[in-house]
User: Fold this.
Amino acid sequence: MPSTSPDPNSFLPLSPAVFNILLALADKDRHGYGIMQEVKTRTAGRVQLGPGTLYGAIKRLLDKNLIEEVGERPDPELNDERRRYYRLTSFGLKVLRAEAARLDTMVQQARGKNLLPGQSPNPIWTH
Amino acid sequence: MPFILALCCWFYERLLVAYPAEFKRDYGLAMAQLFRDEARSHLVQGKTAVFIYFLIRTAFDLIKTIFIEHIESTFNVNLEGSTMSYHDSVNSLADKPKELEHLYHQAKKAGHGNLFKQAIEDIFNSEPQNQLLSAWYHRLNYATSQAKLFVVNWQWVIPLAIFNGYWFWLLSDGTYWIQVNPGQQSATDFLPTIFLWGASISTLFILIYFNMATQKSWVKTAVFSLVPVALATFVQFIYPQSGIRPFQEQYLTISIFHLTVMAWVSVGAYLLFSHRDAKSRMQVLLKSMEIFIVLGVFFTALSIFFGITIGLFAALDIEFSDSLLRLIYGGGGGLLIIITAAIVYNPRLTPAEQELNQGFARLMTVIMQALLPLTLLVLIIYIAFIPANFRAPFDNRDVLITYNIMLFAVVGLIIGATIFRPANLSPIREKWVKRMIIGVAVLTLIVSLYALSAIIFRTINDRLTPNRLTIIGWNIVNIGFLIWVLALQFWGTPEAWVDQLYKAFSQGTAVYAIYTASIIVILPLFFGINQGQIENLPARIQDIVYTEPSPVLLKCASSPHIYLLNGGEKRWVEDIQTFNERGYVWGDVNFVSCSDLQSIPDGATIPIDAGSPPQPEG
Assistant:
């Protein structure tokens, strides 16, 4: 069957919340609270998702087939029906990679202008 | 600590009801659990400030996302993301009929039917031998061809809208204004003719469009469009006969509203001619409300746009001519009425098949249901304050007017709040909507009875006027309607409560229509002037008849005698004792010339056995 998947780049750019949720699911399946904690820890508290933002984004990611709900419970101790686990789909992974590549390109461009911490600033700003 | 946690969680769970029903059903439990987990972790840390910050952050998150989810579900737009696709999902399910059907329903529920169709088309084109995809392709294309029946025929709408706009522009010209008070020149002494004719003319063009779109019956179109035109003609020519000048003015003002209602009734009757069931009537009622709301939005946008435009030109000392302003507001208004009706109502579908789950109709449901608890609260507080200000509507006309406007608005709210499919509501929410509607109906009934007693009191202590008769009638109709709503809820089964409401609304609408037509036709009979009795009176006396309220008492300066003008005759009032016993006051006495008074034929004296009436001398 020939592939008729849309171009992952057509989903870009991702909003910060969506990018962080996909990133949280990149290494393992998580439930909502797990995603929230992972994002909070990884960003040192700079990104904190509220319940409405998180589940609104999850709803849209499910609609777009970027993530899927997992039937089995990876964490038996937290096997509560109110906890729903989510997993990145293969297409979601493609989109996440495309976004990471896009961001990487932009960071490279910023580096080319000596704008990253530790780099000497562009001479134009030293006038 | 557990108490605070439990309290916060309880409160948060209550607030989740503000999300769209589908979203709450799918994610409400998980969101409540997430909130509980996060709140617990903050409380365990024991940092009060951090916990409070968390609550504030969550409140903002709640407000923002409630708004986003409602907008997205109402208008089927995606505020938070880019384009999406069902290609992968359809691809993977291309040989699984059951799963594909399930995916389709999910896509439809999410408002992504077109995206699903696009995926089916793309994959079918690359795999034309796949029979499942072939079946889906033809199924969806047939559905699309049916949906496309709702095509606005702009080639008819635009000319008809321009014609309507032209009449609005023409009849708003000062040349055609009706002078309510002869000899007076202030703006309030004139009535633009378009106020009387606007709704009737618009009905004519709307029905012409509906008939052109469906090619049904020109006879039916002619009959239903000529009824409001005939009523407007009746008002235009009968108003000079309707009593004294203040009554004529009242009759014209009353007629503006009632002719508009009758125009709407004519369109509704046209649409319901072959579909008289309760659901069809309810659908027409709701579609009408949608048209009024959309029209209001369009007209507001038009007013703001041209308001700014005119302001910009005024800053350059360039003034728009009167004709151009009438073209913008009058002509534009007429244009918008036809366009709005054409884009909101699909004449090719029966009333029962009209779409009420998209666009403004759906937004209207959300707004109306949100207003229900607020209205209930306001009514409770209002009724609580009534004993402290009991006499306000009895003494103050403006308070009474406010009451009656409020009562109409609440009846509209009760109707608008029921535009929902109960299957889309959770049982708890449905139960609360029902309770609130009944609560609002009961409280409105109480306020209606209070308002009715106030206007009857004012009428007894003063006199009956066209305005008062009309409002008393409307109060009685509204009270009857509310009692009927409650009675049907009481008698009907709890499961059929929405059907019972629809039944009450559809029957109530018929009563409203009959009462509206009656008001237009009957008022001049109640408050009319017999032209034959006064046409031979002197001009000054005729002027008094038209301008002064009854009783008309006449006297000339050099004569002690006072006469009551009655039926074109003057009736001598025997003495001051009789004068007082009849309740006459000096303020009602009009001074005229003795010759004018002498020229009026004598009628029976007051009292009847007072003897031969003396003539005024002087």
Q: What stands out?
A: Chain B touches chain A through 43 residues (CB under 8 Å). Residues 377 and 440 of chain B are 9 Å apart (CA to CA). DSSP finds 23 helices and six strands in chain B.
